[in-house]
Amino acid sequence: MAIGVKALPITFVAHALAIVGAVFVLVWCIHFRGGFAWVATNKSLIFNNHPALMLIGFIIIGGQAAISYKSLPLKKEVKKIIHLGLHAVALVLGIVGIYAAFKYHNESGIANLYSLHSWLGIGVIVLYAIQWIYGFAIFFYPGGSEGLRGGSLPWHVLFGVTIFSLAIGNAALGFLEKLTFLENSGLAKYGPEAYLVNFTAIATILYGAFVLITVYSAGEPPAPDDFSYSAV
Predict the structure, then answer these.
(1) Within a 13 Å sphere around the CA of 184, how many CA atoms are in the beta-carbon half?
(2) d(CA 232, CA 208)
(3) How many whole angstroms separate alpha carbon 74 and alpha carbon 58?
């Protein structure tokens, strides 16, 4: 199902929001939170890898993978490789981002997997991995039959949209959770850092919305030499 708008102009808004979100989270982690590290006496520097990798690596790159099929006027096989490759990068960076949170908790003596955000995060990354493996096997290699691909495509899109939506919602939940912890530790509720975190969450939600609009908009036509073009 496609809505009656062209995908390309919608992607411009999505790209702009992706840049805004990436800049905001980097400013937060570097300027306000002190930067990044994998080994440090200040364990918060380890945690900072988590929001940066989850937003930029998992959500933004994952969103770009989702809209690449609709926004790029390339051959189907080229778009398939781009789609698959970007999702693979997002998955790997998401796993590293989750590892950063576990590393921070373990080295700080904080319990793991006690919050709704952490439960949903594990669920989302597992579902994302299953979705990627299934897509690779059915649509890329070894590849399913034409009937299986055709029957799987609507479900593949539906599951992908659902998982991405869950990731966006959980990211907003994560920003809220971290900001609440910081405010309970003395951070000014109306200070610049609090505003930045909230605006980063808003940019993330809007980015997710425009990615979803793109997914259900009318795609760009195939490359002129791609006579085998289809929706699969």
Answers:
(1) 6
(2) 23
(3) 24
